[in-house]
Amino acid sequence: MHPTDEGTEVANTQGAGGSKISPGKAGAPALAVEHLTKRFGDRVAYSDVSFEIGYGEVFGFLGPNGAGKTTTVRTLGTLIAPTSGSAMVAGMRLSAANGPAIRQKISIMPESPGLYLRLTVEENLECFAGLYGLGGTKARIHEALEAVNLLERAKDLCGALSKGLRQRVALARALLNDPEVLFLDEPTSGLDPVAAREVHELITGMRERGVTIFLTTHRLEEAERLCDRVAILNTTLRMIGRPDELRKELFARTLDVRTKVPLADPGAVFSGLPGVEGWSDSGAAMYRLEVSDPEAAAPGVARALVRAEADVVSIAESRHTLEDVYLQLVGEEERAERK
Ligand SMILES: Nc1ncnc2c1ncn2[C@@H]1O[C@H](COP(=O)(O)OP(=O)(O)OP(=O)(O)O)[C@@H](O)[C@H]1O
Ligand SMILES: [Mg+2]
């Protein structure tokens, strides 16, 4: 019997149980990747990738289609060997010999669930728990199904479940071995907003239990909401950091000013104000001011507008989302490639 798709990718083995962060691990990296490269023949899947992730961190891995995200997950999940470079996974050096020991401490939820569609939810989980030699199967399955809110569908055939519910079964399967490091490859792809929100809540719950989460996603608001840090990959690593750090690094800080009617002479109002480095007219009575520190500059801007007898509608620091960061980085590269 074979799973419908990619079922063999699941890397669950005997679980350790209990709390995820022992005192000795605090501050130690759960994943440390150094100059990792994977080539398939002439095709480079990812190249010279280096980063570290701490225990208990939720780490977002973003990048366009074909960027190398899944291949990175497969490598760190011990399913394929890197071409060069080195990595530590859950405190162990990534090597063929350490594969079984690493797989005891990690779990992967692959891009496609890979379930036996003619078996029930419970039978699927029994089957995978059995394959990986997990003890205490009944209790583990109960706990995993409870975690993903699927207890009442335990007797349903997987083939009769919706896409979102299958995704949840796959997540339950990934929880069976109580992993220290959990790789989630696009866990909310194709889910409706409510189902996606449920997966987010599960991820938050796992994070609270101290599970380190490596999350690949195309949903940038998901990464923004859930991740402590994110990396943007496009074959090579383009940026890594907290979402707010990336925003600061990529975008100048600006104040957006809106008045009721266009200013007669905006240059006279904005030029030379303390902390204002430049300004531009955005049209429709809106102006964008480049500032070094928005909070320090805003009161002076407000006073200058009042002096000019302008009717101020709003003065606000312009907000850049992680999506802006991503599009700035990846969008520009893609536009350059198309030229
Ligand atoms: N087994 C393989 N043999 C040959 N090439 C492969 C193999 N697996 C992946 N690749 C190639 O490596 C590159 C990276 O693929 P990967 O699946 O890691 O991308 P991804 O970032 O996960 O993309 P997506 O967002 O579409 O899931 C692609 O060019 C892909 O075609
Ligand atoms: Mg992928």
Textual characterization of the structure:
The protein has two domains: 236 residues, P-loop containing nucleotide triphosphate hydrolases (Rossmann fold), CATH 3.40.50; 66 residues, Alpha-Beta Plaits, CATH 3.30.70. The chain has eleven helices and 14 strands. The strands form three sheets. A six-stranded mixed sheet has the order 6-7-8-3-9-10, sandwiched between helices. Helix 8 packs across helix 11. The longest helix has 17 residues. The two termini are 49 Å apart. Adenosine-5'-triphosphate (ATP) binds next to strand 2 and helix 1. Magnesium ion binds next to helix 1.
List the keywords.
single chain, 339 residues, alpha/beta, Rossmann fold, Alpha-Beta Plaits, 4-stranded antiparallel beta sheet, 14 strands, binds adenosine-5'-triphosphate, binds magnesium ion
How would you summarize the topology of this molecule?
Blueprint: E1 29-40, E2 43-54, E3 58-62, H1 69-76, E4 84-89, E5 92-93, H2 99-105, E6 106-109, H3 121-131, H4 137-147, H5 163-175, E7 181-185, H6 193-208, E8 212-216, H7 220-226, E9 229-234, E10 236-241, H8 243-250, E11 254-259, H9 266-270, E12 276-283, E13 286-291, H10 294-307, E14 312-317, H11 322-338
Parallel strand pairs: 3-8, 3-9, 6-7, 7-8
Antiparallel strand pairs: 1-2, 1-4, 4-5, 9-10, 11-13, 11-14, 12-13
Helix pairs in contact: 4-5, 8-11
Magnesium ion (MG) is lined by residues 69-70, 111, 185.
